[in-house]
Amino acid sequence: MTNPDSMIRATRILRREHLSGGEIVDRVVLDSGERHRRRVAMRGAGGLGFLLDLPEAAVLEDGDALVLEDGRLVWVEAAPERLLEIRAASDHALKRLIWHIGNRHIPAEIGAEAFWIADDHVLADMVRGLGGTAEPVERPFRPEGGAYSGGHAHAHGHDHPHGRHHHHHADG
Q1: What separation, in Å, do the N-terminal and C-terminal C-alpha atoms of the chain show?
Q2: Could you tell me if 74 and 68 are in contact, meaning their C-beta atoms sit under 8 angstroms apart?
Q3: Domain ranges, ordered by start, for the chain
Q4: I want to staple 140 with a disulfide (CB 3.0 to 4.6 A). Which of 39, 78, 90, 101 is the partner?
Q5: What are the GO MF terms of this UniProt record (predicted)?
Q6: Could you read off the pLDDT tens digit of each residue along the chain, which spans 172 residues?
Q7: Options 3.40.50.2000, 3.30.70.790, 3.40.50.1480, 3.40.50.300; which CATH number does 80-140 get?
């Protein structure tokens, strides 16, 4: 590897919703751990070496681009990872499984009807013992709060409590 100080730097993230045109010169394929970074030397699939050098640690999402100092873009792709897709017979049963897994403080991606964790046969057995299903799948992993708890990860979709509106009493 060349000396990081002589490498071109990528100093900001262009989120996928703002990606319009721009010269994409390479792509990096990163797993969930590698997508939460502040400063690290990276090498694109096409061989471009560069230094990711962000002001603070951030989570790179599938489809984002890294902006190089000269304005060129490097596309970010989420690598498929070996995960367990966990499902249950009912919404309540799924919530119980999430609670049991949640007590172990491992990264999890929570969907509407399933959730995903890194493939782990001990947890798969536990889930099955609790009446759920755990199927190995290969897909990008987007754990809640990024790969690490704490830090500046942006959680997706905060649950705002519904139906707690302030009632304005009309004066007669």
Answers
A1: 77
A2: yes
A3: 4-78, 80-140
A4: 78
A5: nickel cation binding; unfolded protein binding
A6: 556 668 899 999 999 998 887 889 999 999 998 999 999 999 999 999 999 999 999 999 999 999 999 999 999 999 999 999 999 999 999 999 999 998 898 999 999 999 999 999 999 999 999 999 999 999 999 998 754 443 333 333 434 344 444 444 455 5
A7: 3.30.70.790
